[in-house]
Amino acid sequence: MDYVKAFLVGGVICAVVQLFMDNTKLLPGRIMVILVCSGAVLGFFGIYEPFVDFAGAGASVPLLGFGNTLFQGIKDALNKDGWIGLFMGGFTASAVGISTALIFSYIASWIFNPKMKS
């Protein structure tokens, strides 16, 4: 049942984002920023953690989850290191995910040999 909940919640998030892309004049980059900031705001108000507990990867994998991860990292670093944590907490919390994305995209570029559009 956990897989079904994750699939449905992740699908709903993606469908809502697709509706924003199709029915507004917002550019994809701005929508991505809205998602990351929304995840951080929901994490600040304590709404996102119960949502992740319910939906699992369906809530933690999309960009909303990335914003929440950044917020949690900053919050933990602020409690541990003081104000300097404001600048390093997000990097510490999200380093593994960002590094993984960079490494796998680099490997994919070897396999698929991307070309510039002309």
TrEMBL record:
The chain crosses the membrane at residues 6-24, 31-48, 83-112. PANTHER family: STAGE V SPORULATION PROTEIN AC-RELATED (PTHR38450), STAGE V SPORULATION PROTEIN AEB (PTHR38450:SF2). This is Stage V sporulation protein AE. Keywords: Membrane, Transmembrane, Transmembrane helix. It comes from the Bacteria. InterPro entries: Spore_V_AE (IPR014204), SpoVA (IPR005562). Pfam families: SpoVAC_SpoVAEB.
